[in-house]
Amino acid sequence: MHDAIDLDANATTRPSAAVVAAMREALEAHWGNPSSVHRRGMEARHRVDLARESVAKLLGCRSREVLFTSGGTESANLAIRGVLDRFRGGPRRVLATSRLEHSAVRECAEHLERRGEAEVVWLPHDAAGVVDLDALESLLGERSQEIALVSLMWANNETGVVAPVEAIGERCRDAGVLFHCDAVQWAGRHPLEWSGTPVDLLTASGHKFHGPKGVGVLVARGSARFEAQLVGGPQERERRGGTENLPGIVGLGAAAEEAVRSIEAGRWSSSILRDRLEAGVLARCPGAVVNGATAPRLPTTANIAFPGLEAEAMLVVLSESGVYASAGAACSSGSLDPSPVLLAMGIAPDVAHGSVRFSLSDLTTAAEIDEAIERIAAAHARLSRSMV
Ligand code: PLP
């Protein structure tokens, strides 16, 4: 049995020891209901408040702008559906987004489109996967009064391509249109100063930066009003009903505190190991190409096509040798369809079909990368032989 090498950080990251300890303490010692008025409830409320402050510090926003949810998917749905609901009955029925979004946004948009609840404008992008700013600008120029929301991601989970967030946000702001940014692959890993960023609603998820799964945040400016989608109690200032996931929120707070230090140390921001992985794999696997290579990319994501091979087969052989990676988004691995994101970038279906995402974390070491290159080359050679 080989030592496992995790190259799947865009799918999830390992909860840190501090996160696990904080969650255990929350379960054992602070299990009150934050809405209760007695001391146990007040203790629990205090923990939620502290976690909110930690997240606010990480994202450079105010605590009152942080709303806890069950993760990135809920935050994105809340932003999109909540804003459209707020404008219900008025002229703002357009949602502008792109085919390159994570399914949390893309499927939500398709669902609303199918049900006639929104008109969706799918913005064009270049072959590397960067949204066409001119197309956005003309859409905003022509239809600003009809657009409820622009929703575009900060960094793509499959290719790592980073969007020109400032430029998008400034155009939206000039047009008086709200901008939601799915920052799940960015927040907690790279500097983010919310107060100076032209984004109105921002989605982040705890498990992408060593926090627990099932907890995330929607950061919202006071001016970005939206309707609650989970209607129940008055929690989260009446924007998201339901008793708070206290251990999850406390774990997220602990992860946020550690993330501040990790970002300061630049632990996610060096591309040295990713470049070493790409160079090694390209040198050892004839025909391999890097998808999205020409665009600005996350320093920890490598999406590599092995034309002629099936990504699923590659993942199985890699897994046997202890290298964990993904094909397309994690939630679509196991399906035989090629990634819709790669197809939308104009990548040929057979090339998309043979594309594997390797995503590094702040914990990945050079020794792991060197060993991964060996195992990837061996898997590639084995599968190529079985193809002839
Ligand atoms: N958005 C992006 C870009 C993601 O990568 C993910 C998760 O992979 C999500 C949204 C969904 O987040 P969650 O898993 O917390 O629901």
In CATH, the homologous superfamily of the largest domain goes by the name Type I PLP-dependent aspartate aminotransferase-like (Major domain)
- What is the structural class? alpha/beta
Give the DSSP E fraction (strand runs of 2 or more residues).
5-15%
> Low-confidence segments, ≥5 residues, pLDDT <50?
none
Bound molecules: pyridoxal-5'-phosphate
Shape: globular
Instruction: Give the CATH level 1 class of the largest domain.
Output: Alpha Beta
- The whole-number mean of residue pLDDT values reads 95
Describe the structure.
- There is one protein chain.
- The protein has 13 helices and twelve strands.
- By secondary structure, the chain is of the alpha/beta class.
- It has two domains: about 15-265, Type I PLP-dependent aspartate aminotransferase-like (Major domain) (Aspartate Aminotransferase, domain 2, 3-Layer(aba) Sandwich), CATH 3.40.640; about 270-385, Aspartate Aminotransferase, domain 1 (Alpha-Beta Complex), CATH 3.90.1150.10.
- Helix 6 links the parallel strand 5 (about 145-155) and strand 6.
- Bound molecules: pyridoxal-5'-phosphate.
- Pyridoxal-5'-phosphate (PLP) binds near residues 71, 157 and 184.
Task: List its traits.
388 residues, alpha/beta, Aspartate Aminotransferase, domain 2, Aspartate Aminotransferase, domain 1, three-stranded antiparallel β-sheet, 13 helices, binds pyridoxal-5'-phosphate
Topology:
Elements: E1 5-6, H1 17-29, H2 39-59, E2 66-69, H3 72-86, E3 94-97, H4 103-114, E4 119-122, H5 133-143, E5 147-153, H6 165-175, E6 178-182, E7 201-205, E8 216-220, H7 235-238, H8 246-264, H9 272-284, E9 289-290, E10 301-305, H10 311-320, E11 323-324, H11 340-344, H12 349-353, E12 355-359, H13 366-387
Parallel strand pairs: 1-11, 3-4, 3-5, 5-6, 6-7
Antiparallel strand pairs: 2-8, 7-8, 9-10, 10-12
